[in-house]
Amino acid sequence: MLTAKNCQASTAVQYFTDDYERGQTRWFGKGASALGLKGEIDPESFEHICYGRSPDGTKYLGTKGNPDKRRAGTDFTFSAPKSVSLTTLVGGDTRLENAHRLAVEKTLALIEERYAQTRITKNKLVADVKTSNLVVAQFDHIESRELDPHLHTHALVMNLTQAENGKWYANNNDLIFQNKKHLGTIYQAYLAAEVEQLGYGIEPRPHGMFEIKGYKLENLIEFSKRRMQILAQCPANSTWQTREDSWDRTRKHKEHISPAELKARWQQEASDLGIEIVKAGVPTVAQPLSLAIAQKYLDDAIARCSERSVDFRVEDIEKFVIAQRLPLDIADIKSLCDARPDLIKLDRNYTTINAQIQAEVSDSAADGIALRLPQRAFHQAEPRLRERIQVEPLLDNVNESEAELDKQEGVKVPTYGGGVKVPTHGGDVCVPTSRNFDNS
């Protein structure tokens, strides 16, 4: 599960520097590395970063602004399933804590590469600029506010990112918020894969979540007092946002009890309730997929997305992969899509050649004319579309003179991929050259 909340500097400094033990904090991100921040978080440097200053406090990064109103960062909280918390914090399998941290950092790496951006004003025009670097402060917790075992990490994405010009700007987190729910399922998918490799069985749950196989539902509920408290405040069909609001509204002041004392208390409670902690089986090693198999899985995902819409995002493909539990690394999907010759990139979306041809066929039918395509494009079209297309051999010659092309009045072809303008009775249309359709 992933929740998110913006926080001001004073709040962040007070909350995140209070009673943390060694090994519970660490910096993450290319932006952090650029500032020389790595390993354990030093409270003094952290405070300077929260207020938008350099780690040593000697200068401001970006604009100073009002320190009392400035957003220090956004707290993205990654929470492990209750069964994982029980197995590691009560059962003592610390490998699961490492699996959780690895899943968090894999998700943060994807967020950094894909969604890190800022807004830069030039000539009175404001533009969103991709930066692909973040400054992230991570803080691990093992208990809920009701003092149940609850393994989670606060990933405080600081309000700083560095542009190509070397200057620091405020981090625009709009894209992260827009994809927050999906990012939560990505974290769950990464964690589930790690848990299975450690030898545990997995029981899928709705919305991309899971539990370790072998626990009774009532056992998990016994150690989920905070969750039950929130659900009691919300209708059964509440949205994620409603539940997050309830979480914020009902949270009480946190008690500080040593991890050793908490674990001893949980072990006694589990014993009193007769809860048997699930043991791991034989660990496995993930085998790398061949490119051919990876592309086959991707074929299925693209086909499903194409059925639903002419164009689709990489996030749509990832959602299908996660829902079907296909053994594809989420981090590889975008590069695999970008390398496919049958996908056409449209800003942040993709479409397929056949989807484009289908749209053009429909437009041509509405205009009362037949769609005419180059030979190669014709062969790329699905069989169901070919009977509605006329082949125009002249267009296969990339060196065809414009004079020859001008003779082809009334030709209607797909407009993607560039091409040359062809005069028709109804105005110019753009004719792709054969290299737009050559996938060999």
Q: How would you describe this protein?
A:
This protein is an alpha+beta fold and 440 residues long. The chain contains 18 helices and 18 strands. The chain has helices at 9-16, 30-34, 43-50, 82-90, 95-115, 174-178, 180-197, 217-222, 225-232, 240-250, 259-273, 291-308, 314-323, 330-338, 353-367, 375-380, 383-386, 402-406, and strands spanning 2-8, 25-28, 71-79, 117-122, 125-130, 136-143, 149-158, 161-162, 168-169, 202-204, 210-212, 311-313, 343-346, 349-352, 371-373, 389-391, 420-424, 427-431. Strands 1-3-7-6-2 form a 5-stranded antiparallel β-sheet. Strand 13 (343-346) and strand 14 (349-352) form a beta hairpin.
Main traits of this protein?
single chain, 440 residues, alpha+beta, 5-stranded antiparallel beta sheet, 18 helices
Shape: flat
Task: Order the strands across the largest sheet as they lie in space.
Answer: 1-3-7-6-2
Spans where pLDDT lies below 50 across 5 or more residues: 226-231, 393-440
Average per-residue pLDDT, rounded, comes to 80
Q: Radius of gyration over alpha carbons?
A: 27 Å
Instruction: Summarize the main sheet.
Output: 5 strands, antiparallel
Task: Determine the fraction of residues in helical runs and give it as a percent range.
Answer: 40-55%
Structural class by secondary-structure content: alpha+beta
Approximately how much beta-strand content do the residues carry? 15-25%
Question: What is the straight-line distance between the termini?
Answer: 44 Å
Number of helices: 18
Q: Let me know the number of strands.
A: 18
